[in-house]
Amino acid sequence: MSCNVQHEFPQQSGHYSVTDLRRLASALGFPSNSLENCLPSGSFHKGAINSKELHSLLDLGYFTSALHFTFNMKSGLYNVKLILKCLDLLDRSALSFSAIQEANLAFTAYEHLDQKGVKAETNMLLRAVKMCGCAISPQKISLYMRQKRSSFVEPGRVQLYEFLDLLETCEPRKKFSILEERVPSTDKTGRGLYQMDDMRTLMLTPDEKLARHLNRRFQHVDSWILPQDTTETSLPLSRKCQPTESYNGTRPPPPQNRMKSSDEGVTDEAWTLVTPVPQLRCICYTPRREKPILSDQDIQTTKNNIEELLYEMETLGARSRWNLNWKLDYYLPGYRERSSSRHLRADPQPPKSVKKKCCKDDVFKRLSAPRKRMPSPSHATSCDAFKLGIADKIQRERLKCTTATLHGTKKK
Q1: Is the pLDDT of residue 103 over 90?
Q2: CB 116 within 8 A of CB 109
Q3: Can you count the helices (H) and strands (E) in the chain?
Q4: What is the pLDDT of residue 400?
């Protein structure tokens, strides 16, 4: 992403003047004098400050408090890390001031409302990269996200300094010009069949065509480590991506001549097919004793843990009763003594044997010829016979009987 315009990069490599710092602050969305005001007096030597001195001032915290949730919704550490990344890219001439500004605008457009970064999704990042005027293979960006996923500050989100790293690996869209090749009506295949146009390419959008082309180039060129330069891959990458590059919609064949036959002159750089052969045992073979995974101490510790667990399972009831008695004795002093004395007093007595009553002959006689029953006193109190005069008659009869018996005894 280099640019030939002189004012797109610092005037002196590794040195930043006041104008350069103002351009960087404006590109990041800060006031133009925000970075200049954070520097201590006497920092500029001959109208510029060295890149190493600027890095040390950033590490010492001269910019942290001034940029902490002041000009944007980011912390001071986030902004300091972003400035360090921009300085690194500018020193290596990887991105210019205008490219950093475009990246900041694209990142702000696709950043989530919670201000925690852009979602690490391939389609969203591709749209943000397209907004910066660049292009990248979707497969390459997905692989890049998988590799950088563990280093994300916010899980599933990409920050602006991480987005600038991704933008460094992209290429400008102006380099690509996907042209469709039409098959002449007289061309034939090796089998003598007439070739036909692939009409599926007419249904694809320009972005889909470009993504398809970049994916194929990533599969056949970028992801292969070739042993030697072939007729197809010996050309530099910049020559392959000229605007005159064509795209016919068919899958290109992989690079040929990857393995040369034994008749040809095989160089040192050619690939060698290595087949793993198992090692044969000989008489002098001595088996190697592997170190056990678990040591004797680990096994003994496991046995002790099992015995301790069994002991706790067997004594669970006794320990729970002891804890309950202890708590009751704590809240009710003397509870244990009273409970122990109570158990001593209540001596267990043997159960008494119950003798079965034998049936007598008088019982049958009494039941077969019952005698006349007199009303009971309790029945007399609750009966209405007193009110009806029936009870008086009974009492008179009893008196007569008693007086007659008395007179009979006296006469005798």
Answers
A1: yes
A2: no
A3: 17, 8
A4: 77
Q: What is the pLDDT of residues 136-185, one digit of tens each?
A: 999 999 998 888 888 888 989 999 999 999 999 899 998 888 777 666 66
Placement of tokens 């809240």 in the chain: 331
- How many residues in total does the chain contain? 412
What are the tokens at 119?
């979602």
Residue 181 Ramachandran class (φ > 0 left, ψ -120 to 50 alpha, else beta):
beta
Euclidean distance between CA atoms 155 and 117, whole angstroms: 10
Encode pLDDT of 180-239 as tens digits.
766 666 767 777 777 776 677 778 888 888 888 899 888 876 544 433 433 333 334 333
The Cα 92–Cα 108 span in angstroms is 25
Q: What is the rounded CA–CA span in Å between residue 23 and residue 74?
A: 20
What is the b/e burial string over 242-251, where b = at least 16 CB atoms within 10 angstroms of the residue's CB? eeeeebebee
CB count, 10 Å around CB of 404?
10
DSSP state of 157: E
**CB of 1 within 8 A of CB of 172?**
yes
